[in-house]
Amino acid sequence: MTQALAQRWKALAQRERVVVGAGAAVIGAALVFVAAVDPLLERLDRLERQAARKQREIREVAALGAEYAALQARLSRLEDRLPPPGAQFSLVAFVEEVASQTRVRERIVGMQPQPPTATHSYQETSVDLRLDGVSFSDLLALLVELEQAPYGVQVRHLKLKPKYDAPHLLEANLRVVSYDRPR
């Protein structure tokens, strides 16, 4: 068979040999492209997409890491404000003391302790407090004192409305919350 091809090749004119050689080169180049270059280009494209996706994931993980660190720092600050083990802290007594200091004790119409609830590894204690006829400045002083408590005391809920008969005075409902380690 190779002898027959060699005879045909010799029988071709110079111009025909150039055309057949160029066609064979084009077919050879196309085969090399299809067999080797195209798969490499596709793989390179896929790797570039994966690299871009991994870069996004790295940025997301870094952002989550920063958020986690901020939350850990916040948790650490909050845990520093928890009563030490063995300390006797009564939220009701503390709220009464602060109300006396800020001159709103006589405005208390209701103080109802709520049953303690366990949240994660902490115990949450809360007191619902109702005030009637309190001035805005006295209420603000109470809120500031509660927030600046030595232990982790927070005002979780606050509802205000002006009194109908004395609009310069307020009716206030608030829930004061503190956290402690479970006993």
Characterization of this structure:
The protein is an alpha+beta fold and 183 residues long. The protein folds into two domains: 77 residues; 90 residues, Ribosomal protein S6/Translation elongation factor EF1B (Alpha-Beta Plaits, 2-Layer Sandwich). Helix content is 55%, strand content 25%. A four-stranded antiparallel sheet has the order 1-2-4-3. The longest helix has 67 residues. It is rod-shaped. The termini are far apart.
Radius of gyration, taken over Cα atoms and rounded to an integer in Å: 40 Å
The CATH homologous superfamily name of the largest domain equals Ribosomal protein S6/Translation elongation factor EF1B
CATH fold topology of the largest domain: Alpha-Beta Plaits
Q: Kindly report the oligomeric state of this protein.
A: single chain
**Residue-averaged pLDDT, rounded?**
87
Morphology call: rod-shaped
Largest sheet: 4 strands, antiparallel
Task: Let me know the number of strands.
Answer: 4
Name its key features:
single chain; 183 residues; alpha+beta; 4-stranded antiparallel β-sheet; 55% helix; 25% strand
In a few lines, what is going on in this structure?
The chain has 183 residues and is of the alpha+beta class.
Break the fold down into its secondary structure elements and pairings.
Layout: H1 2-11, H2 14-80, H3 91-101, E1 108-119, E2 122-134, H4 136-147, E3 153-162, E4 170-180
Antiparallel strand pairs: 1-2, 2-4, 3-4
